[in-house]
Request: fold
Amino acid sequence: MPSPTAELVARDLAVVWHPCTQMHDHQTLPMLPIASAQGVWLHGHDGKAYLDAVSSWWTCLLGHRDPRIVAALKDQLDTLDHVMLAGFTHEPAIDLAEELVRIAPRAVGDARELRRVFYADNGSSAVEVALKLSFHYWRNIGRGERTRFIALTGGYHGETLGALSVTDVPLYRQTYAPLLLEPIFAPSPDAYACAPGETAIDCAQRALAAMRGLLERHAHEVCAVIVEPLVQCAGGMRMHHPSYLSGLRALCDDFDVHLIADEIAVGFGRTGSLFACEQGAIVPDFLCLSKGLTGGTLPLSAVLTHEQVYAAFYAEYSAGKAFLHSHSYTGNPLACRAALATLTVLREEPILERNRALAAHLAKRIAPLAAHPHIGDVRQTGMIAALELVANKSTRAPFPGSERRGLRVYRHGLERGVVLRPLGNVIYFMPPYCITPEEIDLMVEVAVEGIELALR
Ligand code: PMP
Reply:
């Protein structure tokens, strides 16, 4: 008799095509059927528990099956499952939009208030919405010559064609390049790329100077600049100084182009503030949110913008200015209720304060790794920490990607019951906020063991 796990794996591999996976790898790499989850723990059909150190692709904010979200979902299911949001509305969509508007980033001296919420149903779709809204805004006000976007090197915004166009991670982009829009790529303020003797602030200033140069040449044809505030996540958890954000906001204003902040991965307390934009004291023209929005239970995304944008679309139907973008599950009531429950927890509990203590504990645990001969950088922003594996510490030369050393760390993690899913040579931690100091210790210990094995 095959074990229940083996049977599930065989059935899976016969029919399911997995995301972000070379399916051939599963000839040797274990596929893990998960039966249930609670808090930071995933429970396999094999009876083993796995610490979800990456919050299931950064979605699971508070921990799996948070009882408050579960209760809200059950209650919602008893009343309204779904209704299309065109021509109809419902309390969860209204309540959530009001709450998002209430907590949206504000800045002293900036009249922009993010008071309009457009829903979509995943991160990439939110980015598509923001790109289209920006382009369409300029067209509606008679500036149809603005057709391009500025994106940062090393940035990631999703994998639908528009979002992939403004993504600069070759692994995902290269193959599809012939199908994509051609954005203008500006140098990232990534502090890991600092020249010797440069500080993170210097690095940010250098990137801003380059951005100014590009805007001087291209602003007339540019709709918006898109940025992942503070941490370029999928590009390798590359971090930058908050002064880049304030400088970028000022440049976008000087050259009259929109600023799109993609906080899909970093929103809702991940970086130490509720939104990363707050650390640069900026209000973007478009704020993209998803992932942690529903606490990792259901797909949902939202794009917030201000009244000036909304007003450019508001006209008699015959003017042809409406934003006709639509997804079937826009503003799904269940997803909105899950998001409301998540935001209630963030409002009522001292989550940011608790995260500060947890982040300090994590910092203490990873600090000694800076001396490791094959760790070229130890970096952290709030509840995101990353270790950069290098072949040569003094030159920071990376290990060739083909050696797949990160994959060895992943395998070891699974053996020891910790889900680490490195991004190439970058081993990172992005755990749910309910993790305990002891679980942080375990997560780091297993990562260090995995790194030692990967170096052999
Ligand atoms: N933007 C950022 C910053 C992201 O990290 C991601 C997902 N990793 C996306 C967009 C795309 O979101 P989704 O996977 O839900 O399409």
